[in-house]
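Workshop exercise sheet. Pairs work together: one partner reads the sequence aloud, the other fills in the structure field after running the prediction. Swap roles for the next sheet.
Pair: D.N. / O.F.
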Amino acid sequence: MDCALRALDAALAAIRPGHPCAAPHAAAQAVIDAAGYGPAFRKRIGYSMGVAFAPDWGEGALLSLFTGENRPIEPGMVFHLPATLRRYGAWTVGASETVIVTANGVEPLSDLPRSLTLR
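Structure field:
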């Protein structure tokens, strides 16, 4: 959980207007790789939400915070960032935030705590 939280914080810090959409993923991936959990993180760090990016199962209209996505981040964009680590069949842990991009970074759209809940 500590690694997921640190990866999420790194990704959130990398979301700035003008930065490429790949930057938050690279920041999170660096934290995860340094902690030795690279194989447990095989997805993008985030994706767009909102009226301009209506969800669909094919995800053709979504904007990914992922490697190779060079579209610049802009104020007003909304992203969900699930920093989730998985060892399939053994465990899953993660933390997430939904944020709106501001002129200076991001504003979380929730004030829920990021504490660990065991199930």
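Discussion prompt: The chain has a mean pLDDT of 90. What would you look at next?
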